[in-house]
User: Which sequence fits this backbone?
């Protein structure tokens, strides 16, 4: 990677470094300089590492955003420093629910994103690696490394 310093940022206490019973370990995020690239956020419960398939879709989106927020904060960033998001869904009509939940979430946790949201892309996917119905990838900056 040349002059760039790659930092692997593992999980905070309570965040599993594996998914449920699948013990393929991963990093919650990596950083290169001040650029933070979290692993995809999804609907798992950070205490149990499990997903509740009975959660309504809007609650899955909220849980996913909470998990994204927690990983960003663990790495020294925050929602306000999101640059780009990619939201993967498997049902096309859910894109409207995603936007409604994001707006409510940003009002509560990152009001500046209401007027200046990160760049975003929504991708309709035939299936996700995780068993939820939504996953969010993102890129953020770590402000104290600017």
Assistant:
């Amino acid at each position: 990677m040349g002059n760039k310093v790659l930092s692997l940022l593992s999980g905070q206490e309570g965040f599993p470094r594996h998914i449920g019973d699948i013990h393929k370990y991963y990093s919650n995020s990596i950083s290169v300089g001040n650029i933070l690239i979290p692993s995809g956020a999804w609907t798992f419960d950070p205490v149990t590492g499990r997903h509740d398939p009975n959660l309504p879709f809007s609650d899955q989106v909220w849980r996913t955003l909470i998990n994204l927020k927690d990983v960003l904060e663990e790495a020294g960033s925050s929602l306000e420093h999101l640059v780009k998001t990619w939201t993967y869904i498997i049902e096309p009509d859910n894109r409207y629910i995603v936007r409604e939940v994001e707006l409510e979430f940003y009002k509560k946790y990152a009001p500046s994103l209401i007027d200046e949201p990160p760049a975003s892309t929504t991708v309709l996917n035939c299936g996700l690696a995780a068993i939820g119905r939504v996953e969010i990838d993102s890129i953020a900056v770590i402000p104290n490394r600017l």
